[in-house]
Amino acid sequence: MHGVLKVKTSEEKARELKLKELEKIKEYQRITTKFNEFRSQEDEFYEEKSLDESKIVLENNPEYYSIWNYRRSVLEYLEKNREHDEMQTLYKNEMKFIEECIQRFTKSYWIWFHRKWISLKLDKCDWERELKLCSKLLDLDLRNFHCWSYRRFILKHSGIPLTQEFDYTTKKIEQNFSNYSAWHQRSSLLTKIYTEPSELASKLKEELEWVRNAVYTEPKDQSSWVYHKWLTGTLKPIVATTEYKDILKSELGPITELMELEPDCKWPLYISLLLKLEIGEYPKDQLLQDIQLLIKLDPYHINYYKSLENKI
Amino acid sequence: MTDNQLLKEKHVEYIINLDKKKEDFEYWVTEHLRMNGMYWGLSALSILNSIDKMNKEETIEWVLSCQQPNGGFSGNNQHDDHLLSTLSAVQILLQFDALDRLNIDAVVDYVVSLQQPDGSFFGDRWGEVDTRFTYCAVSILSLLNKLDKINQDKVVEFIGKCRNFDGGYGCLPGAESHAGQTFTCIGTLAILHRLHEIDIDTIGWWLCERQLPNGGLNGRPEKSSDVCYSWWVLSSLSAIDRLHWIDQDKLRSYIIDCQDQETGGIADKPQDLPDVFHTFFGLCGLSLMGYYNLEHIDPVYALPTKTLRKLKHLNLTWNKH
Ligand SMILES: [Zn+2]
């Protein structure tokens, strides 16, 4: 159970709630018993009716995974003795049913998997529409990882250009720099779009410019800093050492400026320390001082920062 | 709560009364999860040194009754088999020292049949892939000493594909890092003795950054804290020997604040309703950090260390207890 607040109520109110709860249970039991009776009678000879009868249980409890399995069994059975067009209609109806469920229960692993399974049964899934459904859900909860995962599934099966998704991450990040899921998506797209090391390198350098705006706007938000850390780390093996160090040095300038603007914020200090450690030309005293300051700003992670002393 | 008291007796009472909660709607809609629930409850009692409070014979009988003809275990009677419930069944039987009553070959065949050519695992015959299922498979086979039945290199290769820009791991290749999935991937690599192949400091840093100013841990950046991450994050840190990278006293206070003073049990957040899942993971966190003389829990197998020590074929390189 997540996020269910414990509420204190009067005795009378508690009794009332309890009665309601018992009624809810009774109704749920009635539904499940009715379905199980139906199921035992049909004895694995399925009809369209099997799909109708099982709906109501899932509408009340989408986590009842065995019934999602049941629906797929029914469809597999029907596939053997129904016309192709008839089956396509059933699959389309199933997509509609899932869509209703998914908007009420946005985080059920079982529902999302069922949608993937059905979408691949369609002759022609409207992938653009699927993407739109995801965008709609991500407008309501920008971190829903099931939804992001389904987007990647769509990209894999639809042939929709990855650059379109890349532009979507730009839009989502510009709406909210704390959208870590979008930063993640962006990182995983980049290495897929730019497979040539030289192309990738020049894109990553562009990204360094782009991320600067984010860290300046939200310096306390780790999302863009993690991305920054990844950009420099990914550049390391694909550019020459001298160029790598020059890139890091040119990053250090604006980050140092940001430190002066935000003296209580650990992020620019931490990232600049990592850059200095990589560049490797800084006096030991200065680096130790940085570590001491980090410990002062972020005492919980004292042992992590101390571990950096070994890297000097 | 300022005195940091762990309500041991109340938690024991809370757990043994779980099966009497039939007047809660929640009890009925989570019926399919009973095998996991049983494992969480039983293991919580193990941590509290009270496993004898559970009806051993009745529980074993019920667990065995959930084994399906294909060898897998279902979440409850009249439900379908799944790797998630199969792992819980094995973990329960092991804690009751009853593995000899299990049809081991059938379980092993079931698990092996779910491995795919790319090294990943299906959760059941329907084909959902997730690193959670990889962990279940590898844990089951290693507990039963049958790891040689699968392609371990391919498992490691698949896990490698699920690694992300921040060093963490997700459900699938390309999926965002999540502390839960990071636990399953690190756990898998630990069991296969392949942890030395990963960049420990990068993932260690990402994990320790999960601690928030309130002391609690979150599962992903910019999310709120939740007691279950006391397990997913902490166990991962412990497996890579970086437990000291977070402030343990602050986390202890957070977990203690999530206790239900009246009924016992631990909730996801202070003031929320408790449940068995968070009760178990809260206790796990406290056990891993060594507070309150609790029975030590192994960070990789999520089972009491003393139970695992009886399995001579295991080599718990990460566990000093
Ligand atoms: Zn939780």
Distance between the termini of chain A: 46 Å
Average per-residue pLDDT of chain A, rounded, comes to: 95
Mean of residue pLDDT of chain B? Answer: 96
Computed structural class of chain B: mainly alpha
Structural class of chain A: mainly alpha
CATH topology of the largest domain in chain A: Serine Threonine Protein Phosphatase 5, Tetratricopeptide repeat
User: What is the level 1 CATH name of chain B?
Assistant: Mainly Alpha
Order of secondary-structure elements of chain B: HHHHHHHHHHHHHH
Give the strand tally of chain A.
0
- The CATH architecture of the largest domain in chain A would be Alpha Horseshoe
Biggest pleated-sheet summary of chain B: none
3D architecture notes:
- The complex is a heterodimer of chains A (312) and B (321).
- Chain A has 312 residues and is mostly helical.
- Chain A contains 15 helices and no strands.
- The longest helix of chain A is centred in the first third of the chain and has 32 residues, at 11-42.
- The model of chain A has no long low-confidence stretch (mean pLDDT 95).
- Chain B has a single domain (8-308), classed as Alpha/alpha barrel (Glycosyltransferase).
- Helix content of chain B is 45%, strand content 0%.
- Chain B is globular.
- The two termini of chain B are 30 Å apart.
- The interface between A and B is large, with 50 and 59 residues.
- The structure holds zinc ion.
- Zinc ion binds at residues 226, 228, 268, 278 of chain B.
